[in-house]
Write a structure and sequence with these properties.
about 375 residues; alpha+beta; 2 domains; 4-stranded antiparallel beta sheet; 11 helices; 16 strands; about 30% helix; DUF1963 domain-containing protein
Length: about 375
């Protein structure tokens, strides 16, 4: 069936008249970025007045929260104190870097918790607050579990990961995300950039026969990417067809001169075969995309606030739960690097690719999530 309409902005074929969802989302984001100080305060005041509606995932409060956090970095201690007073613990991002009095309130409630559901929510909130006292509390709960621990699947150190950090058995902190975030935006044809997504490779996948791609190539020597601590080029290579079917991440190792080694898939174990579902026109769209690195940094939750942006650094928009991969070489948790929304590169595809890396071993993890 042919589609009758097209998006007036990007030309995407549609079955209805109006903007496609990606262009509509982009326009809504642009509106928020141009809110006046008075409009921002109005939204903040609305959250404080109706903070209980946020816990119930009611709009406009839930949508306003993510706009304030993701696009304006405007969740204030006043909002955090109102949430604590009203016993609102969702979304946990409410408490990102909350002040000490709010942290102490969260710790008090957590240590008084009697059921696993409440304790789970509160550990996520404390992880988002994330200071040394929060670490000490989660470490104590890991060493001396409360009765509710037996009803949870993972330890407090895993809950800490939702705040972008974790700790080892000695209580040493390990940072898992970066405190800088850049968007990947559409550039002009031929425009230079220190990042490239979807670069075709010569080799083919041993499992499906499809072409391998360098799904992300970035030059850490660019001034904007200095925060990554990479004095050279990182290349992440995978099969765009098979990476979505793996029971776990795909891995590759990079050298700072631009080299890359693809690890054999553990899931297929070198014997499994499958069809390649990526069509030639989709490979063309993937490898001819015009995404470049944005000129300016954005708030850390910019990529977590919506489903249509690709980002370097900051926090991810996890489709399911956060998942930091253990480096297959040294065993340490890897650092979150980037998220790539498949449907921004190939129409009709689903899900998100999360890219992590081990700075010590130069190993990259690529894992796919979708609903």
């Amino acid at each position: 069936m042919s589609l009758k309409y097209t998006c007036p902005v990007c030309g995407t074929p549609l079955g209805y008249k109006g903007l496609c969802w990606k262009c509509r989302s982009g326009q809504e984001r642009d509106t928020v970025l141009h809110w006046s100080p008075e409009q921002v305060k109005e939204k903040q005041d609305g959250l404080v007045r109706n903070i209980r509606r946020l816990a119930d995932m009611e709009d406009p409060e839930l949508t306003d929260f993510w706009k304030l956090l993701g696009y304006r970095d405007a969740i204030t201690p006043r909002i955090q104190r109102a949430a604590l007073a009203a016993e609102v613990y969702y979304p946990c991002e409410l408490y990102y870097h909350a002040p000490e009095d709010v942290r102490d309130g969260l710790i008090h409630v957590l240590l008084s918790a009697e059921n696993s559901s409440e304790a789970s929510e509160l550990m996520c909130c404390l992880a988002m607050q994330g200071d040394d006292r929060a670490l000490e509390t989660l470490l104590e709960l890991e060493k001396h579990p409360r009765p509710w621990r037996k009803n949870l699947y993972v330890d407090p150190s895993i809950y800490a990961q939702c705040g972008g950090w974790t700790f080892d058995k000695e209580g040493q902190r390990m940072q898992l995300n970066f405190d800088t975030c850049y968007p990947m935006v559409k550039g002009e044809p031929g425009e230079g950039s220190p990042i490239r997504m979807g670069q075709m490779r010569e080799d083919t996948c041993p499992h499906c026969g499809g072409r391998m791609v360098d799904i992300l190539v970035l030059d850490g020597r660019d001034e904007r990417l200095r925060f990554l601590g990479l004095d050279g080029i990182l290349t992440a290579a995978c099969c765009p067809n098979c990476v979505g079917f793996l029971d776990g991440p795909a891995f590759s190792r990079f050298t700072l001169d631009g080299g890359v080694e693809v690890f054999p898939s553990r899931t297929f174990d070198g014997t499994g075969k499958m069809d390649c579902y990526v069509r030639p026109e989709e490979y063309k769209a993937l490898t001819e995309n015009r995404f470049i690195l944005g000129k300016s940094s954005v708030p850390l939750f910019y990529g977590a606030a919506c489903e249509d942006v690709n980002t370097i650094g900051g926090f991810a928009n996890w489709v399911q739960d956060w998942e930091y991969t253990a480096c297959p070489h040294c065993g340490k948790p890897m650092k979150y690097l980037a998220q790539i929304q498949w449907d921004t590169l190939m129409d009709g595809t689903e899900g998100t690719l999360y890219v992590e890396f081990c700075p010590d071993c130069h190993v990259v993890s690529m894992q796919h999530q979708q609903t």
